[in-house]
Amino acid sequence: MSLNHLARHLFGTGVLTLVLVANAMAADPFTLTSTTIKDGQLMPRKVSNRNPQNPNCVGDNVSPQLSWSNAPQGTKSFAILMEDPEGRFGAGVHHFVAYGISPSITSFAEGELGKPSDKYVGGKSTPGIGTYSGPCTPPGAPHHYTFVVIATDFDPKELPAGLTHDEFLAKLLPEGGMAHGKAAAGIVGLFQHP
Q: Is 82 exposed, middle or buried (0-12, 13-18, 19+ CB in 10 A)?
């Protein structure tokens, strides 16, 4: 996927765009891959959330497999964010916020992010949970689900649990302070209500 395509889907705020541009210029860029998701393609039904009260949640809420490589020197922890920028009629839905991932961890197996773990600190998604919350896409055009892994200089235990997407980004790039992001990589999966 091109950097421009990815940047269009990065959380509407553009906070991570500068990190992505710097990463693209690196000799061995930081990359995110998945055996579950093919970048720019429809994701399998199993990654969609499961909720009998919501007819748009048609899957099994299985988090995708994610792997990353070529983290920059000085990386102390990783964060993973997942967003649907088209959700809530364009206001966006933050499906997953996790951080405090040790630099020795470079992947999560399929389904692993759907339950609490000592491998990451759970933030607070739009649905109010600290684990993976899959798509609940309404009928119509497919939505774009952006998965981003961020290499940071935060100690794995530095940030408290329960930070929202916006609170985490405020810590990552404090106003008037030094940015804590070292590199970011992402993929975009599409989901369409069957």
A: buried
